[in-house]
């Protein structure tokens, strides 16, 4: 078991954790006397009571000591420097150079694609570090972006030699406890089988290059599939198919580094880096174009002219002038930046983003490029990407209040409200008079239903900035939420007096009008918002919803299509189109739209429920089944499709098929509590009682508050005659769903069968309080009253039940018995005659059916 780590270790005061790994944790720490910051790697400590943990700890200490010794002897520009270490005692540690610019993998998440020229520069840096290590007889064994850090000059620093092996130790040494260590997707075949060599690091660097170029790995699969790959059965996925403009020579270089046989790779890792650089220069693009000083000077003149034209609002001319500058100097990042700003002014956000990507490519340290790129992502409503750029900036400047505010807004749009609140609060902490941050925070509190906090924030924002339009918009939406619609509209009018061109004000007006069912007014407002901000997918979506309300379906389809065009990942737009197309009985097109929504959000139970419900209404259960089978044919591992198909089978009492289909759903999503609960029902119907109870337990473990497993448990116990346990299960059911009259009636049945008649009467009474037309509750209460000889009360309940179910022959016989017990032969005879009449009718019906056959 891990034990706690102190706040100070040796001469180092721990400030915060910045990383963790298999052997320990990494802290940002400060030397208590030198006041210098270090990255302090601290080894996990273990309990002395566990022999296995003690053995694991001894192995970890050995690896920790090896890393320290290796790093101590290494002094290289692209390897993290070790400063100090303590390998003995209760808490071993190593103090290393602190790289404040962070890890490569944190700045650039897995899947980010880079241009070849930028990759070449990075590969040379990593290769030089690896070549240096190899010359010293050290194999890194875990080369990957997660083990690359940025130095103060944005240079790459190789870290984490915790898995490194000394080459003189021998290939596949059986005494090496870490001989199979590494990261699976980056491991060379020989390393996979426990025999790393220096060229194993070349292979891992080749995998890294492959991933940087394509965003993918050269091979995906299970351990057995990896083994097949390493034996030559499956080649790496070709890069040319993924990157059409990649020079053939570059692909050949990378594939050689990925050769299964290490002898077929380059002689050393630097030879690989040299070959990649040479192949990249063969590409006929600006990376290889020499630029003389005259061209560079001319490009600067054109860029200066573009600024003049931009200031004069002659945007098209300014954009063309930037393009002329770039024709002279294709690496001139300032011209890209100027042109991006112009395109932003022209609301051509996608084109602006393309130029900003070039700025970041050629000037990765230019922080303003990330700021503008975040703004563009906001306009494109691509908030995850906006957050990535804002986080990049905040990692370098954690005192940027504006950036915290902007990131908070992105979190808010993604409905990650706690993260949004934290960022807005940090912005306010850094700049206490930040009115905009108060107003934004008010919006989050409104979404969370904390209306008083929202009002307090709005008031604070307006005290700081009385003409802040956003504060009035928030006030309007809060008042509308509270049902004070006229006051809300007055706030909107005041905001429009301050700035009639504010997009958010028109959106707020549209939303309020829509909720008030003033659809024409809502359309006017959203149309105006789109005139101001054409790239608003939400605006087009809401217009589509309005058109649906107004019955203008063709227009709605066009508007919803535009929403999806602006934001291709807009799941709601596809979903709404699907529902509308079904309403119009355009089933094939609707299925296509549903599949688009499912591809983006395949586990959305609401979508599936609406899908199947609509199919049931339009075409019955057979149509639902046919459609689901078609979906499954295209997406055979889609758990929710199997779940809905199983529900169709259960609806038709095909419980064996339903059981099999629920099992398939659980195979692809073993965490679906509802699927376990429904399979339990199938087991109950098939009288597989033990299996039903097992599934109920699994469902409750996944979702303790779900009522259905307890309902099924209770029915299982009733079926096997364990009435007391049935009562307990139904009590749990009522605790989770106390407002359902049927639940009280079900528990009453258990009490009646357990001869607890008083409890049965109480439960039936509660059921009838919730639903006075629940006939079964009258019957169970009548039977319980009869058992307690409360004959008058029993008669009243039987009469109420028979008024709702007059053809229940058994109930008439029971009523006959009660009248006899009461000494009322006339009414007993009348009840008897009703029962006999029902029996005669039943026999006649059976005879008619027999004659028909």
From TrEMBL:
InterPro entries: HAT, Kinase-like_dom_sf, Prot_kinase_dom, Protein_kinase_ATP_BS, Ser/Thr_kinase_AS, TPR-like_helical_dom_sf, TPR_2, TPR_rpt. Keywords: ATP-binding, Kinase, Nucleotide-binding, Repeat, Serine/threonine-protein kinase, TPR repeat, Transferase. GO terms for molecular function: ATP binding; protein serine/threonine kinase activity. GO terms for biological process: receptor-mediated virion attachment to host cell; RNA processing. Gene3D superfamilies: Phosphorylase Kinase, domain 1, Tetratricopeptide repeat domain, Transferase(Phosphotransferase) domain 1. It comes from the Bacteria. ATP binds at residue 41. This is Serine/threonine protein kinase with TPR repeats. It comes from Ktedonobacter racemifer DSM 44963.
